[in-house]
Write a structure and sequence with these properties.
Number of domains: 3
Helix content: 55-70%
Strand content: 15-25%
Largest sheet: 5 strands, antiparallel
Mean pLDDT: 76
Strand order of the largest sheet: 4-3-2-1-5
Shape: elongated
Structural class: alpha+beta
Length: about 350
């Protein structure tokens, strides 16, 4: 029993130090977050508590080696296990710290920049960069963990000899995945589409909700999600309604009778726009764009601050103009003529 006293003491001290480090770090971050409630980096750093504790306990167990003495096992086996846990925990901790750092950069940029288009661009770039860095860290961590096994080092020469053939096969097999990967990087840093942009894809309008390394999520007007490969936005044309300016020109087309009082209808449109908060006050017009043997084609145009406002403004104007003509000028509504006037 006295032989086990020292390793048990070391084990308990390691656990106590790990818990103390996690609790102390969390308390410090809580206080800092309370003093700076508008900064998003501190809550993200609090998520590093578990990987930090794993790093501390695995490092202490690796240095003191109390488990080998308690369980009387081979030192090499426990050493390898502790080393693998330490490496995996370091990779996990690095991913969390990098994510918190990038979020801090985005939060800082949002406070000093008033242009929403630039904020959306930086948000998209940082989101893609976080995914790329996380993938690289994961690959490097797994590679370092594999290199800790002597068997992996001894067969390294044979693996290198066949690396060329395997590279060709993997390249052919992963051609689509690699294409989407580089397309995602091109979208992030080419500023063609960003999170929050309003786009039209295959005739469907929606808002870009998420961009990953392989696909892009578009939220449609009825809350459905359209999943599109990122390579689509590199290889095919698409509409981006908010790339430079969120403002949009809405239009309403009416087919009316030739007896329509166009001037009175134009004045009514202006009056309705002045009383509608959705109109941004920049532009408006009402024009006769075409004629047919039985109707006039009248188009009303007006600007709005965003695509959503433009859609709501278009619906309201159409309803109001039809109601005005129905109540004040019923002869202006199209009708089927069956005899001589």
């Amino acid at each position: 029993m006295p032989v086990l006293l020292w390793p048990l003491t070391v084990l308990l001290l390691s656990v106590a130090v790990t818990l103390a480090v996690g609790w102390g770090g969390d308390q410090v971050l809580q206080r800092v977050a309370a003093r700076n409630p508008g900064v998003a980096v501190w809550p993200l750093l609090r998520r590093c508590r578990i990987p930090l504790q794993l790093v501390v306990v695995s490092a202490l167990l690796l240095a003191a080696k109390p488990l080998e003495r308690i369980f009387d096992l081979s030192g090499d086996v426990l050493h390898e296990v502790n080393l693998l846990v330490l490496l995996a925990s370091l990779g996990w901790l690095t991913v969390r710290v990098v994510a918190a750092g990038l979020e801090a950069v985005l939060s800082r940029y949002e406070t000093v920049t008033e242009d929403p288009a630039r904020v959306q661009r930086v948000h998209t770039q940082i989101s893609m960069l976080r995914r790329v860095v996380s993938a690289v860290i994961a690959v490097v961590t797994v590679a370092v963990m594999l290199l800790t096994f002597s068997a992996m080092r001894t067969i390294g020469a044979s693996l290198l000899a066949s690396a060329g053939i395997l590279g060709i096969v993997a390249g052919i097999a992963a051609q689509s995945a690699l294409g989407n990967f580089f397309a995602g990087l091109q979208i992030a840093f080419g500023d063609t589409v960003r999170i929050g942009d309003v786009v039209v894809v295959d005739g469907q309008q929606g808002t870009v909700e998420e961009i990953t390394l392989s696909y892009l999520v578009v939220r449609l007007w009825d809350y459905r999600r359209l999943i599109v490969p990122v390579s689509y936005f590199v290889n095919k044309p698409f509409e981006n309604w908010t790339r430079k300016d969120r403002g949009l020109l809405a239009s309403v087309v009416l087919h009316l009778d030739h007896a329509t009082p166009v001037d009175a209808l134009r004045a009514t449109l202006h009056e309705r726009l002045l009383g509608n908060p959705l109109w941004d006050g920049a532009e408006w017009a009402l024009q006769v764009t075409d004629t047919t043997p039985s109707t006039l084609v009248v188009r009303a145009t007006m600007t709005a601050r965003s695509p959503d406002d433009a859609a709501l403004l278009r619906f309201a104007v159409r309803e109001q103009l039809i109601a005005y003509l129905r109540d004040e000028h019923p002869d202006a509504l199209p009708r089927l003529r069956t005899g001589e006037a």
